[in-house]
């Protein structure tokens, strides 16, 4: 038993090293995928925010045009 123990320990160490290498490699690829997805989400959030701002600007302009048309309508009614 004493003669087998060093070889058994070495074998287990190698097997555990190989397994941990593949697990680390898989986790690294997952981390890269997650990082890419986070970047896409950030980009989409920026686009949505920009569209919301553009929509608010357009809504404000529409409100201004409606107010101007109402004023013109009241002036025309007075004539």
- Average the pLDDT over all residues and give the rounded result: 93
Low-confidence stretches: none
> How would you describe the shape?
rod-shaped
The number of helices is 1
Note the run of SSEs as H and E: H
How would you sum up the major sheet? none
Measured as a percent range, the helix fraction is over 70%
The assigned structural class equals: mainly alpha
- Which assembly state applies to the chains in this document? single chain
Radius of gyration: 34 Å
Distance between the termini: 114 Å
Task: Kindly estimate the percentage of residues that lie in beta strands according to DSSP.
Answer: under 5%
Number of strands: 0
How is this structure best described in words?
By secondary structure, this protein is an all-alpha fold. Helix content is 94%, strand content 0%. The protein has one helix at residues 5-78. The chain is rod-shaped. 0% of the residues are buried.
List keywords for this structure.
rod-shaped, single chain, 79 residues, mainly alpha, 1 helix
What is the structure about, briefly put?
By secondary structure, this protein is an all-alpha fold.
Fold blueprint:
Elements: H1 5-78
């Amino acid at each position: 038993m004493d003669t087998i123990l060093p070889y058994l320990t070495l074998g287990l160490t190698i097997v555990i090293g190989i397994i941990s290498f593949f697990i680390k490699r898989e986790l690294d690829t997952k981390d890269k995928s997650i990082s890419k997805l986070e970047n896409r989400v950030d980009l989409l959030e920026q686009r949505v925010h920009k569209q919301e701002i553009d929509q608010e600007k357009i809504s404000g302009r529409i409100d201004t045009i409606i107010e101007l048309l109402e004023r013109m309508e009241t002036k025309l009614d007075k004539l």
